[in-house]
Inverse folding.
């Protein structure tokens, strides 16, 4: 991310950054469509159909799909087209092993390196998490979660962590959205996210790490619980 982009602040709640490119916008729309199962696992998609549906040109759509392919949420297959990737509990548990370590590092680094403007943004995100918890609103929560992720990797200022986080985040969000009604406590999950955001805003490095551990503990138990649910 460039320093100029780092200064842009999106309203807490997942609104699109007014300074984003068409490719960024295409990616944001497509990622949300996949995460919220508007494009379900295993479904085939085409650049042309997506371009028409979103009113965005094929080149930004193609670039967004390539990014989603790098994050393993879609597969671009020769002679078969573009397929939304399937969901697997075992893979998700392995992903969480890595996610715990990376997200703890990102949270602690963000608490140490975040700017005053970013601290204010983290506090607004925490309040947005609280609102989504009170309303028990899954879509609102998912949008705030994306904003929290983007700000966290920016504030951590570690380009290597960015790549690792981006690889895991969409897959984790989609898995949660698929199963949360059967096995998750949305208000609790939102509040645990808010606790991390507030610790980062306070510059509490140890507190941010502990809050992230509590969050990942809950997410891991939720993932295991999905094995015994009927979906």
């Amino acid at each position: 991310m460039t320093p100029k982009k780092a200064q842009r602040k999106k309203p807490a709640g997942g609104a699109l950054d007014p300074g984003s490119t068409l490719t960024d916008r295409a990616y944001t729309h497509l990622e949300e469509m996949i995460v919220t199962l508007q494009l379900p696992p295993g479904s085939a998609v085409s650049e042309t159909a997506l371009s028409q549906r979103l009113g965005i040109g094929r080149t930004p759509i193609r670039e967004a799909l390539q990014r989603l392919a790098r994050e393993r949420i879609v597969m671009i297959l020769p002679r078969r087209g573009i397929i939304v990737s399937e969901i697997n509990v075992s893979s998700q548990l392995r992903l969480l092993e890595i996610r715990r370590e990376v997200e703890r590092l990102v949270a602690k680094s963000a608490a140490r390196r975040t700017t005053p403007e970013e601290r204010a943004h983290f506090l607004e995100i925490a309040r947005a998490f609280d609102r989504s918890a009170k309303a028990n609103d899954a879509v609102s929560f998912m949008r705030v979660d994306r904003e929290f992720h983007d700000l966290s990797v920016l504030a951590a200022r570690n380009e290597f962590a960015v790549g690792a986080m981006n690889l895991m985040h969409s897959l984790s969000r989609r898995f949660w959205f698929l199963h949360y009604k059967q096995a998750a406590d949305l208000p609790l999950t939102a509040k645990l996210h808010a606790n991390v955001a507030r610790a980062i805003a306070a510059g509490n490095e140890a507190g941010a790490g502990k809050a992230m551990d509590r969050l990942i503990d809950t997410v891991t138990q939720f993932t295991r619980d999905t094995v015994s649910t009927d979906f």
About this structure: The beta strands are 44-45, 74-77, 81-84.
